[in-house]
Amino acid sequence: AQSVTQPDIHITVSEGASLELRCNYSYGATPYLFWYVQSPGQGLQLLLKYFSGDTLVQGIKGFEAEFKRSQSSFNLRKPSVHWSDAAEYFCAVGLISNFGNEKLTFGTGTRLTIIP
Amino acid sequence: GAGVSQSPSNKVTEKGKDVELRCDPISGHTALYWYRQSLGQGLEFLIYFQGNSAPDKSGLPSDRFSAERTGGSVSTLTIQRTQQEDSAVYLCASSLAWGQGINLTEAFFGQGTRLTVV
């Protein structure tokens, strides 16, 4: 079965430090890949997405992600985090379900805490 | 409206009662999803509607859960005989059709309905 794994439940980084959030998927073909952010009290917002082409994609708020087929990974990165980046981050995979429809499957999320 | 609208924003109900949660997707979006987010958990897929196709109900946790989408627009998620473990935030999302060669688009999420079963 298809699955999405975010191995880090909680990450704490200092403001200004670099960040990498891990995401691995299990699927036979190249899926559509997304990263969403959920700020406290807010809805989910799309940071970036990958379908094909250049494996390094740029998103909003200075985030980027790199698709690595050999590792089945789509890790999210930011060179220098800001206090406002504190949030829950979700990796998602778009797949064709058994019903022939598209289905968006989410990982369990990584909570990011920023310390001064 | 400009975004996905969900109502109510908060719902407290007694165990055993039925509840209805409503989702108004973005106009023109043919795909609609329901997810459940429990405390400290990720987003659990519940059901997916796409145009006039049969919905993907594979994520509904029990037969107490059902959903409809009328006229290809508004959707209602119904939970019968609520249990305490149903307490969660229920999120709705909509998108244009994607996949299978169609341009990739994002899913837009509503603010969710926080359901508390007491």
Describe the structure.
The complex is a heterodimer of chains A (116) and B (118). By secondary structure, chain A is mainly β. Chain A is built from no helices and twelve strands. In chain A, a hairpin with a 5-residue loop joins β5 (32-38) and β6 (44-50). Chain A starts with a strand and ends with a strand. The model of chain A has no long low-confidence stretch (mean pLDDT 89). With 118 residues, chain B is an all-beta fold. In chain B, the strands form two sheets. In chain B, strands 2, 4, 5, 8, 9 and 10 form a six-stranded mixed β-sheet that branches. Chain B has a four-stranded antiparallel β-sheet with strand order 1-3-7-6, with no helix packed on it. The termini of chain B are far apart. In chain B, 36% of the residues are buried. The model of chain B is unreliable at 99-103 (pLDDT under 50). The chains are: A mainly beta (116), B mainly beta (118). The A-B interface holds A 6, 32, 34, 36, 42-46, 49, 51, 90, 94, 96-109 and B 31, 33, 35, 41-43, 45, 48, 50, 53-54, 56, 58, 91, 93, 97-100, 104, 106-107, 109-112.
How many helix segments of chain B?
A: 0
Q: Please, how many helices of chain A?
A: 0
- The gyration radius over C-alpha positions of chain A equals 14 Å
The end-to-end span of chain A amounts to 41 Å
Largest sheet of chain B: 6 strands, mixed
Number of strands of chain B: 10
Please, what is the oligomeric state? heterodimer
Give helix % range of chain A. Answer: under 10%
Sketch the major β-sheet of chain A. 6 strands, mixed
Mean pLDDT of chain A: 89
Category from helices, strands and their pairing of chain B: mainly beta
- Backbone CA Rg of chain B: 14 Å
First and last CA, distance of chain B: 33 Å
The helix-strand sequence of chain A is: EEEEEEEEEEEE
Q: Bin the strand percentage of chain A.
A: over 45%
